Amino acid sequence: MMGRLPFIAGNWKMNKTVGEALDLVRQLKASISKVEGVEVAVAPPFTALYAVQKELEGTTIKLAAQNLFYEEKGAYTGEISPMMLKEIGCHYVIIGHSERRQFFGETDETVNRRIEAALGQGLKVIFCIGETLKEREEGRTFAVVERQVERGLRKFREMEVKGIVIAYEPVWAIGTGKTATPEQAEEVHRFIRGRLEKLYSREIAEGIRIQYGGSVTPENIKGLMSLENIDGALVGGASLKAETFSKIVRFKEM
Ligand code: 13P
Known about the structure:
This protein has helices at about 20-30, 45-55, 80-85, 100-105, 110-120, 135, 140-150, 160, 180-200, 200-205, 220-225, 240-250; strands spanning about 5-10, 40-45, 60-65, 90-95, 125-130, 165-170, 210-215, 230-235. By secondary structure, it is an alpha/beta fold.
């Protein structure tokens, strides 16, 4: 197996004013900037991106945005373009988060267009997928995840897919305190990697990192990261405090 660098990202969602964001990032710099063997990113809300980027300069912590719009520019009130994110130093952008699919009408097709626009601007993508509780209970987890992967990545060639990280976030585990068991997560991660192999190649599938997201905590990170196909975590609630996020980033030391 190719060594995939573990990747822990904090999705702050709609939390933190600029002042609060800077406080958190200063604490993170103090506690995790020297950690090796793990890639780390934080995704503040749009309003704090610029200030956080300034604060992160010279560190290895990367900046991520939580969304973008796929058009280059124009009359799209309230939207943010890929170039705007690139210009202020974003490295990653989260696309297709279940909250966007659930509350803001995002579909597999709009996710696909957003990924294309992000990659076109040289941004790396954290592409989110995952089934709802109802879909899991109806035994449709694999079918849903397969559809999301195939449609979300439609048209992309191997070169492009290399710039993507997949985040498997079962919707029923997000913000509920109900983490998928490591076995439940590993089963879906293995399935996703298998689909990537069919769509692309073994080499590509082995190289793509698949994060798990959904109630990740310092208590459960180690168990999740011990599995072969779990390459990192997309952390919501526990990324809002330096203490818990740092512990997650330092999972190897636990
Ligand atoms: P929680 O860690 O709060 O469950 O959120 C997960 C998530 O949605 C990260 O994108």
